[in-house]
Amino acid sequence: MREWWVHVGLICIPLVAVYLHIPPPQLSPALQKWHSSGEVFHFRGREIFYRDSYGALGSSDVVILLHGFPTSSFDWNKIWEPLTQHFHRVIALDFLGFGFSDKPRPHRYSIFEQASVVEALVAHLGLSNQRVNLVSHDYGDTVALELLFRYVHDELLTALPSLLLFIFDSSCTQTRTDQNRTGHLIINSLCLSNGGIFPETHYPRLLQKLLKDSSFLAPVLTRLTNYMIFQKGIGDVFGPYTQPTDAEFWDMWTGLRYNDGNLVMDSILQYINQRLKHRERWVGVLTSTFVPLHMIYGPLDPVNPHPQFIRLYQQLVQRSTVTILDEHISHYPQLEDPTGFLNAYFNFIHSF
């Protein structure tokens, strides 16, 4: 009997070894086209992937798109062309640790750093003195709120008399240290969508909880996560009538596996704890800013469920307008209902 188990063990060891080092899947033609249409710039020695398309000739407006977790800028592919017909420039990036950008490990990923990545991209593209419109989703919502906080802070410092400036700026020394600023962003408008901006109405998935909270399990789970587990997890946050196609699921998985991105998910997921720690900072600026705001919301979202999330948003963010999409639209509205998403966004832009 003992010999039987020894033989099974000897067979299983190489199989497990092979399984844990499965090479990443090849890029599909659609993903390859997206990749080849982009460029990279360097942020503190790391390569950051971005796309920058020039569009409408009669417009000077710029829109920057901030994607969610665990996917990439490819989330915006269904609305990219219509946006280029409306805006002079349409820009999207893969955050550090996502998509085609570098995925360093070990690394302490943070919302503050991702906001600095966006500021660095804006400086790289020569847009530091131009007003830009932000559109964000999920993880990108919190990055957008940090950018909004910095913008409001910068505007306030500009307006304060010198004495008050000295007092106020001295009180924000730690804030500046945390931010480690890399540029300046002038925000013309902000459109959020289905992000867990309120910790009290945010319900992360079980795997996310395990990855962010268990230092023992996380390294094992990140290696054991495979396409079937990923497909099930992502499929659960889409509506039953708006599920991605097999090809779309595969593109999401390919983007995650690129440069071993599955191995940094636990580090990136610390953003959930950061949202709780810095709630006053990010929710505070959202409730007090005069920058035009809009929320596009898929009400079937299990991560930010209806009606708790949208009721709290409307209660706290009274200056914002809101579009609630059809009842079958869930956590990825720009992919599940690109036409509805675009109509809502263009109505918002035209309103001011």
Radius of gyration: 21 Å
Count of discrete alpha- or pi-helical segments spanning 4 or more residues? 17
Under the CATH scheme, which architecture would be assigned? Answer: 3-Layer(aba) Sandwich
Gap from first CA to last CA? 77 Å
CATH superfamily: Alpha/Beta hydrolase fold, catalytic domain
Helix content: 40-55%
Which residues sit in consecutive blocks of at least 5 with pLDDT less than 50? none
Number of strands: 8
Largest sheet: 8 strands, mixed
What is the CATH level 1 assignment? Alpha Beta
Structural class: alpha/beta
Mean pLDDT: 89
Strand order of the largest sheet: 1-2-4-3-5-6-7-8
CATH topology: Rossmann fold
The H-and-E topology, N to C, reads as: HHEEEHEHEHHHEHHHHHHHEHEHH
Q: Give the overall shape, derived from the CA principal axes.
A: globular
How many domains in all? 1
